[in-house]
Design brief:
Blueprint (H helix, E strand, L loop, with lengths): L1 H113 L12
Length: 126
């Protein structure tokens, strides 16, 4: 009988040990499932945050580019207007010079044709 009790004790101990091992494996699997779920949530949160940051940076970059483009356009328009004004002034000045030279030349030719003496060469005589 003692031998039977000893065998029963060993069998009971083995069964208890297997039961505890099975319970531990179940708990480990449950923990692994929770860890996976937590990691998935963290990754999704990080992805959403990164997307928000990228969208914000893109919007800011677009706004800055639009501002810079508007400023460049304004500067170019101002420079064009100034260049046009300077060119018009230069054209008017040159036209006046050419007019005076033409008038002087015409006076000289007219005096030569009519036989009048040539006036001094300090400009047209009006």
């Amino acid at each position: 009988m003692t031998k039977n009790i000893a065998i029963a004790g060993v069998v009971f101990g083995a069964a208890l040990s297997l039961g505890l091992a099975h319970a531990q494996i179940g708990q480990d699997m449950k923990n692994a499932g929770h860890d996976t779920a937590d990691a998935t949530k963290t990754a999704a949160h990080d992805t959403a945050h990164g997307t928000k940051v990228a969208a914000h940076d893109t919007a800011h970059g677009t706004k800055v580019a639009a501002h810079d483009t508007a400023h460049g356009t304004k500067v170019a328009a101002h420079d064009t207007a100034h260049g046009t004004k300077v060119a018009a002034h230069d054209t008017a000045h040159t036209t006046k010079k050419v007019y005076h030279k033409t008038a002087t030349g015409t006076d000289h030719v007219a005096h030569k044709v009519e036989g009048k003496p040539e006036p001094p060469t300090n400009g047209p005589q009006h």
